[in-house]
Amino acid sequence: MIGVVGALTFRTGLDDAVADPARFGQTLPYAVFISQGAAPTARDLAVIRKAATSPDIAVMADLRVGVFPVNERSVSTFSLDPLKGHIDVVSLSGSPPASADEISLGPDTAGGLGVGTGDRVRVGRRMLRVSGVTFVPEDPHNSYADGAWLTREGFARQQPDAADDKFREVRLVLAPGVSKAAATRDLGEFGQHIEPSPAPSAPEDLRNVRVQPLLLGGFLLLLALGAVGHALATAVRKRRHDMAVLRSLGMTRRQSRLTVAVQASVIGVIGLIFGLPLGVAAGRTGWRVLADATPVLYVAPLAVLVLVIAVPATLAAANLLAAIPARRAARLKVAQTLRTE
Description:
Shape: elongated
Structural class: alpha+beta
Low-confidence stretches: none
Helix content: 40-55%
Number of domains: 2
Radius of gyration: 31 Å
């Protein structure tokens, strides 16, 4: 029971992460490339400002992308500059930068530098406080776990001239019910450049291991069924003398069957009492280990359907396994058994 529930709880965590890009910090699903190695033109900026007023767009962020030395390590760095709505930055610890004297680092970057929330790092010529460990936008030149965020003011201090930016892009979230095709049509020239943001490879890596928890759970389930069936059959065989004595004292065949069924139910109930909470704990522990290693935002999984089905399914399976041993107990030849024993 512990193994089966644990495997399926672990699988629930996998499914949740694979289905939700926000678990990897990708909360801005669409991107518009503006410029590379050059400052955006006045016309580009006017188109961006006009697009921000469109009801088709729920969240819009103007991102400057540069490469800055952080403790002498080159790090792809983004400016945190919302044009509309709130940028949802996913933090593993701490928070996104709130001032020009703060920086947040991707988990791989923080791990490579050996720093964490509250530490100080040198960015260019300035010492900044690490406000948190957060995911960053996935881009062709960096992964979602490798990079850094600065506020708009903090980025400008490091690189005043926008012509020195590596990239300039806009990330956005479309309003509910608005498709990419509709936004492209409604936003005119700006909309022609709307493309899905680069997707991280980590969800695909997790998707490739989704079958393993099911295989493990299935194997442990078969093992459990075999063990319980063997225990019931062995109990009837070893206790046949006791059953014969009870039958000679008035126990009916129906009561003999009921005795085996009660034993099977007790085994199932004990498995549920200990197996359900320990299985959930084991599955969550395993998922946390994998989430930290991936990395991905850990959200405690709960396989609700498994827990709901587990009780009736366990009791039904135990009693089905008890059917043959119960029939043997009911058909016990009392006189022959007592004479043999």
